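Retro notes (design track)

What went well: tokenization of the new backbones is finally stable.
What didn't: we kept losing track of which sequence belonged to which structure.
Fix going forward: every design gets posted as structure first, then sequence, in one message. First example under the new rule, 254 residues:
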């Protein structure tokens, strides 16, 4: 009797082992496949608040036409067409991220501006420009209008629009458009005259090239003595200066 029970127990054990060997393998495979699908699917990607660098706006160097996106977005905020705290959902590859309108301007994010143009609407953009005495082709897309492409606004008019829509509340955004793409033309002049006072940065230890790049944000009057790393400067670090102050950088090779 005892031997019969043992044989029965052994048979049950063998059946259970075969069951797990067969179905357990398939289950593991299924779980693995499911995880792979989840990892590859954009739905399971984490939405990031840190936006990767996308395609940036490029305009001809040294032209005030670069200010058109800034002016149009600030005008839309001022007129209540868009909210400056509104979060725009953007996608870069499999990643999603958020940006506010002014962050899009700072990053010169082409995709973000194109989405903003859709929110603002072509009718609003055309009407806004028409109210300011600027006639553009009705064939232009809202994306083209907001990027300032395929039409030109006289520089005098751009300066007027800047004073009207940007200067009071958003002038710090001008520095975002003062990058390598903007050259050293009239746009730099606006930026510098906006800063009646500024603080001399501590440039000691910088490479001469980097120090000039940093200092050029504040003044175009820069005199260089020597090469290599900056070992001395005039005026002294953290001095409060006004306007186009002449600065001297002394460099030596270490």
């Amino acid at each position: 009797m005892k031997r019969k029970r043992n044989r029965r127990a052994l048979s049950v054990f063998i059946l259970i082992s075969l069951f797990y060997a067969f179905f357990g393998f398939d289950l593991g495979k299924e779980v693995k496949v499911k995880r792979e699908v989840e990892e590859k699917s954009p739905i399971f990607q984490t939405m990031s608040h840190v936006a990767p660098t996308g395609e940036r706006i490029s305009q001809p160097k040294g032209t005030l036409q670069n200010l058109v996106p800034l002016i149009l977005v600030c005008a839309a905020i001022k007129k209540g067409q868009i909210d400056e705290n509104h979060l725009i959902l953007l996608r870069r590859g499999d990643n999603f991220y958020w940006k506010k309108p002014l962050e899009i301007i700072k990053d010169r994010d082409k995709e973000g501006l194109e989405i903003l143009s859709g929110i603002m609407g072509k009718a609003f953009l055309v009407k806004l420009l028409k109210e300011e005495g600027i006639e553009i082709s009705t064939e232009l897309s809202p994306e083209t209008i907001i990027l300032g492409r395929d039409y030109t606004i006289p520089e005098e008019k751009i300066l007027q629009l800047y004073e009207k829509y940007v200067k009071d509340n958003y002038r710090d955004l001008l520095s975002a458009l003062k990058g390598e793409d903007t050259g050293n033309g009239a746009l730099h002049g606006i930026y510098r005259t906006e800063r009646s006072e500024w603080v001399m940065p501590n440039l000691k230890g910088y490479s001469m090239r980097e120090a000039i790049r940093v200092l050029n944000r504040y003044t175009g009057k820069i005199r260089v003595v020597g090469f290599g790393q900056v070992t001395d400067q005039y005026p002294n670090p953290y001095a409060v200066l006004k306007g186009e102050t002449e600065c001297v950088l002394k460099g030596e090779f270490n």
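Added context from the reviewer: Residues 40-194 form a domain with the Beta-lactamase fold (CATH 3.40.710).
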